[in-house]
Amino acid sequence: MTKPISDLRLELPQLAAAYAGGALTPSVVVERILHEIESRGADGVWISVVRRNDALARARQLEAMSSREREALPLWGIPFSVKDCIDAVGFPTTSACPAFSYVPTRNNPAVERLLAAGAILIGKTNMDQFATGLIGVRSPYGVARNPFDAAYIPGGSSSGAAVSVAAGLVSFALATDTGGSGRVPAAFNNVVGLKPTRGLISGVGTVAACRSIETLSIFALTVRDAQAAFEVARAYDEDDPFSRPEPLEASSQLPAEFRFGVPSQLEFFGDSHAAALFGSAVERLQKLGGSKVDIDYAPFTEINDLLFKGPWLAERYGALRRIVDEQPAALFPVTRDILAGGKTISGADVFAAQQRLNILKRRVAKLWDQIDVLVVPTTGTIYRIDEVEADPITLNARLGTYTNFVNLADLSAVAVPSGFLPNGLPQGITVIAPAFADHRAASVAERFHGASDLPTGARHLRAAANSNHADLHEEIVT
Hints:
This protein is of the alpha/beta class. The chain has a single domain, classed as Amidase signature (AS) domain (Amidase signature (AS) enzymes, Alpha-Beta Complex), CATH 3.90.1300.10. It is 38% helix and 14% strand. It has helices spanning 12-21, 26-40, 52-63, 67-71, 109-116, 159-166, 184-189, 223-233, 272-287, 298-309, 312-326, 333-340, 347-367, 385-390, 392-399, 405-408, 438-450, 472-477; strands at 46-49, 79-83, 120-125, 172-177, 192-195, 215-220, 258-263, 290-295, 373-377, 411-420, 426-434. The chain has an 11-stranded mixed sheet, sandwiched between helices. Helix 2 (26-40) packs antiparallel against helix 3. The longest helix is centred in the last third of the chain and has 21 residues, at 347-367. The radius of gyration is 21 Å and the shape is globular. The N and C termini lie far apart (42 Å).
């Protein structure tokens, strides 16, 4: 009889220790995960799941390796999932639109690197159709229910990816982030969402929402786990027109005392509990050695508006114009309307917006003389499914208040859990740093998360390593 996954620790250090000590094997882990997925039934998390025989064959291939071969694979036996707008051989890519589905012949380069590092792909996860939305309910494959309260949204567009991690079905998930899709679901599922600098992970073999500014992202139970997956996934790709070979910032670990910016204008949309929780997070950062600096949020708000109210909609429409124009009935009405909004945008509009964006980015760049990182609520609040169905555009836009600007402004970010509201729903903060300062953001996020003493994901398990981590960058890079 297959044991349940309730006590299966999937954080990378714990799973590696269980493998090394002989308490677990990849085959046993795969069996337990697939049994749990089958037991959950149509839970809206998955669009396709690996066949049991294929997964076990992969596990046994890994088990047949010598100890030296295993040691050379940093993700040996680690289960992961992939958002279904990212190509993985053996699975159709749908982007949550059955009429668009195709069968890829090559893996996305990041998927290929993860597999080459010994990871085991469990399946492709559900998402807001064509990655259009931050709510996670715009899919013909159902809704990946929020594991803390099924009446509330799971966050999108990478909903299934985040839930797959929170529910203990995988150790980490590969997702995408254009305006917050790798961060909003992290907040609503009590997991970590790492949004790297654009161009560090290849976007080849993906159905892009907005190719020039989006990035692949990673969900995990801890910052350390997300960073470990990121270090494997990232690589310069000559076939990706937006790939960048620049190295990450060399000095990543902040001193004991650091400066963190907080918007002087904060909006929680009437959610006083979320406001109080963020206030507590700020106090926690100050106790950890941070000095709070109030910053003007106006330039970030203006950049937000450029993403979904400006000419970048034309890029979204251009990538999907064939299905928008020829098969409109195949799309969710709200998705179709958003994408079609790009039809009327002119080239002049695009160039004018690019020029305005450059001015705003210069204003943002000056802030780094005053602060080391920017800290914001990942979202101002959370909504029920019935609320977003009644007002999908307005409420979706509110969820992007603290996320939409990050890719347009060319910044890096890590979203981490910050605690729970009185109703039991999780919330989070996001630590933001300049481009290529990814490890700086991760360092602060790790320090904050480690001091939070929160359970990981939705299974009420606490990671022992979460409370006493050594220097994150030292351990990963050296």
